[in-house]
Amino acid sequence: NYLLFVIETLKIMGGKFELEDDGLKVDGRECKLFSKSIITVPYPYFPTDLQQIFTTLACIIPGFSIIEEKIFEGRFDFIHELTKMGAKIDSHNNLLPLKIKGTPLQGIHYVQTVPSAQVKSALLLASLFATGATEIVESIPTRDHSENMLQQLGVNIQWHQNSTGKNIYIY
After folding, report:
1. Are 138 and 165 in contact (CB under 8 A)?
2. Residue 18, class by beta-carbon neighbours within 10 Å (0-12 exposed, 13-18 middle, 19+ buried)?
3. What's the farthest any 2 CA atoms get from each other in the chain?
4. Whole-angstrom Cα distance, residue 51 to residue 162?
5. How far apart are CA 132 and CA 124, in angstroms?
6. CA 31, CA 18: separation in Å to the nearest integer?
7. Contacts of 162 (CB under 8 A, 6+ apart)
8. What confidence tens digit (pLDDT) does each residue in 84-135 have?
9. Are the beta carbons of 71 and 48 closer than 8 angstroms?
10. How confident is the model at residue 93, as a pLDDT?
11. What is the DSSP string of the chain?
12. What percent of the chain has a predicted confidence (pLDDT) above 70?
């Protein structure tokens, strides 16, 4: 039930899904997504925890999208990294909402300053559609669900622990 609004939003954007007894099957073959405006609001509507992922999707989908965060406005701190990747993100005087135009992206070197699994996941997602490699330097550990999922899906992703944290590479 928690994701029903998100699933409906993705369907409107052109996503293809099948509900199964044990989960959700996503069909990404020949799927063309369309831009969509998103406003985060409390449950049962669009969750703020997925705002970074949808902001990233807006960066790669043709057309213009508007993203507005109504719960935690500080969650847009990561857009600077998306713009380094080539994303076209416009805000009036750095205020919300964001206007995003889909555009090709480039890989980056990102050093995490604040631990955030959501930001890391968004940048990993963006890297899937970027030209060139991306390296994420994580000095403070966050959940590694995105790395594990991407590896299980066959994405060329590697990570290495070292004395200062973890370096994640996606090619």
Report:
1. yes
2. exposed
3. 47
4. 31
5. 13
6. 14
7. none
8. 999 999 987 666 789 999 999 999 999 998 898 988 999 999 999 999 999 9
9. yes
10. 66
11. -TTHHHHHHHHHTT--EEEETTEEEE--TT-------EEE-STTS--GGGHHHHHHHHHHSSSEEEEEESS-GGGGTTHHHHHHTT-EEE-GGG-SSEEEE---EE--EEE-SS--HHHHHHHHHHHHTEES-EEEEESS----HHHHHHHHTT--EEEEEETTEEEEEE-
12. 98
pTM confidence score: 0.85
| Residues comprising the chain, all counted | 171
Give residue 7's pLDDT. Answer: 87
Reading the block at residue 150, the tokens are 């991407």
Token pair for 139: 């000095």
Q: Find residue 141's DSSP bridge partners.
A: none
Q: Which two tokens stand for residue 163?
A: 């004395």
Q: How far is residue 54's CA from residue 68's CA, in Å, rounded to a whole number?
A: 11
Tokens describing residue 154: 């066959």
Encoding tokens for residue 51?
């705002």
